Structure formats: structure tokens, C-alpha cells
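Appendix B. Raw example, untouched.
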Amino acid sequence: MKQLILDNTPFCTRAALVDDGELVEFSVEMTSAGGIVGNIYKGKVVNVLSGMKAAFVNIGLERNGFLYVGDSLVDKERLHSVMPKKSTKLSSGDVIMCQVIKDQFGQKGARLTTDITMAGYYLVLLPNSQFIGVSRKIEDDERREYLEQLVKSVCPVGMGFIIRSAAGKADDEDIIKDAGRLLALWDKVVDDFKYAPEKSVVFEEGTLFERALRDSFNEDIDQVIVNDVAIASALVGRVGKAKVEAYEGERNIMSYFGLSSQINHLCDRKVEMPNGAYIVIDKTEACTVIDVNTGKFVGNKDLEDTVFKTNMAAVDCIAKQLRIRNISGIVVIDFIDMATKEHQEAVVEALKERLKHDRLKTTTVGMTPLGLVELTRKKTRLPIDDFMLQPCKSCGGGFVISDSQLAFMLRDELVDFMIANRYDTVYVGVYPGLYEKVLQSEILKNHINTSWQGKQIYLYADDNIRRDRFVLSDKEPYPSPEVITLITKTAESVEEE
């Protein structure tokens, strides 16, 4: 059974794609800084680099965006049509319509394109390109031809569409409605662009929830569950044949469905495999490096057989981690050395086959004599590491669990503590950095306004507490901490209101 679990909090939104209880894909978006990939801007060209056929464009963000004439959101290798080449001459001071195709990473500004695309559930509108493309994931030639003719019948002159894989099982009426909605949306974008001020956003891509729904249409989702009644009501009729449910339980939605532990393990550098072997994931400035180790797996035949089985098991584990953690860019995998060429080729082919299930495009290079496999995974949005990890202040080069992720871990532990004990007064001790994060993020707000009304929950900071540990008790700490805050309303204050 495939489920899409949506967690809405004042701090951020989280989306988890789950297959029979196993986490397949996970995304996080901060409420205060939504994603910008897919946003359309009225940008102003700041500088043109003629030798690179590129330009820097001010779109109103902290850093100027980088526009390369050849950039496009269209993945041409997955289509049966070829996009015609375009040439764009730009000068400093020009005002242009541009779209973000790659998020800001580190000190680099957003990557931009003038080749606008607008994604729907079954189609992607290409307002500036005159062709119809069909996803290669729709393998039935007869169905492909039918869909192409159907979409051509509603496509205006001078525009084009990509037919997404979800259209392979969709009704004609739904596809035509999707086309009409996208065309109406494009007309509004053109209108808004005329009157929008320079360096401003003209069109904002959907929220994480909307994108998760749209992108999961081809995943044959059986059920969508969200911890917000209003959002659940709004989703009815927009998720195909999937059933929509509102979760109103006392526990956090991710914990209730057994996902919190799986999410927390996305912080781990070392990932254990069922057979006792493991992989180690390290990120560097230039790439992500994955090392394969036999660990406790000793096999039962000979060394070569043990190594081969370990590497084959690692293929599944690596493909899963790439998708869940959204690891992108250059990835180098250090498989254990294999003596036979047949085993080397089998591992590489198995990896390529496993990566076909990934929504993002990956390109795998063969194995080197050193047993290294190089691959690239399309980079668009930030990896999950950007939310779940932060640089270590002590060593300067490593990473530790982020304060944001620790706030979620504290929330889960505190909710379970409250359910198990039913105390009226609770003291929560954390390290000073997490104390500030919990107060600023309001991550406990939903519980404070519902099941914890009338209770007294105090949050205090203590330098002696490890940053990844929490002290929960119904007893007041001794000696009394200097920094302590009542984060819930007392029964008296609730009655006064």
C-alpha cells in the first residue's frame, strides 16, 4: 500500500512517500522560506558574460541568479521530441521573464532559464516551445500515439506540452482539464508580468504539499493522510483515485505511522544493511562519497562471493538513500574490489536498473579499475541534509544533527512522555541552542493550543545537557535554572480568555 503522509506545523511542512510502511521519499520545506524552484520572476539583467553565453540577473533575492542560454527545465533525454535550439541576446538593464530551475546552494545564486515551463498533474505546459513530448515511462506505443494526438488537439499554436507519465492511466477529460488549467494560468502570468515591478516574483510554484501531490500522481498512491482537517478537505477531489484522510490523533503523525525513527536515521553517516554489511555516506564540497563495507557479513562460500553479494546488497541501499536524502550532483561510490569482470559489470548494471525507479534523472558511469563508480543525479532542490544537518562548531569540518531536526525529535519525545504520564506540570531541559530554536520555531504550538491546554510545561536551558539529549521530568530541576519559560497556558489564563 502506497501512502503520502503530510505533516503540517507552524515551523515547516514535511511530506513522506511510504510504500508498505517503508519510507521511499522525504521532503521538508520551511514555512518562513518556501522553495523557489519553479518560481517565475520579472528579473533585471545586471551583467552579461558573452564568452560564457550567460548573464547574472537580479530577481530580488539575496544573490543574483545565473542564466545560461542553453538551460531548460525540460529533460530532453526522456522525451521522443527534440527541442529546437534557441538563441537569446541579452544586454545589461534588460527586463526579462525567467524561471528558477536550480535552488541556491552555498554561495551560488539560483540557476535560471528563460525557457518557461508550468507543471500540472498530467501535463507540463511549454509556452515558448512548439512541440509535444511524451514521457519515456509510458511504454505502450499505441497509448503514446493516442495521447500525443489528444494533446495536440487542445494545444494552441506556438506552444507545446510534455505528457507526464501519470497521463498513461488518466481519463481524456482529466488531461484536457489539466491543459485548460495550465493555459489559463499562463495567461494570468503574462498579465501579471506586465504590471509587476522589476526584480519581483510573478508566479510562485506550489507549496510542498501541492508539489508532493502532483509529483506522486504516477506513483499510484492509495491514500493521502494529513494532520490538518482543513487541508484534508481541500485535497478531496485533487488526488486522483487516492483516499484522503485527516489524522487527528494525539501523537505526531510521523510517529503514529512509524516514520519518525526512519526519518531520524537520515542523519546517520553509517547506514546498516539487513545482512550486516553497511555503507558510509560523506559529503564534500565537490561531491558525495559512499563507501561500501562488509561489516558483520562474512558469507558462506569464499571471499569473492562474499564481496559480490555485499556489493549487490549495497546497490539497493545506495539507490534508496540517494532518493530519500535527495543526494544530487556528483556521487562517487567505492564498492569493494571484485576480482572478476562479470561481477563488476553485474553490479553496475544492477545499479543502473535500480536507479530507473528514481523520479530524478541519473547518469551512471562504468566502474574504474579502482572499483569506483561515478554517477550524477539531477540537482534541483536542496538535499535533506540542509535541514537535518549543520556544520560542527567544534571540528569545523564535520556535521552534526541540526537544531531544527533536534526540535522535531524533542517534540516526538515530549508528546509520547505526556501521553504516557499525563502530568499536569512538566519540566523540559535542553541545551541552550535548542532552547532558542524551540521558542522561535513554535514547533509545539499545535499541542499547546489543543491537548496541552491547562497544563504547565516549562522549557529551560542547561549547559550541562548534551545537545542531542533532553531531560523530561515532573520535578522542578535543582538548582533552579536561570533561563526558564512557561510555554503553555495555565488553566486560569485559559478561563480568563
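End of appendix B.
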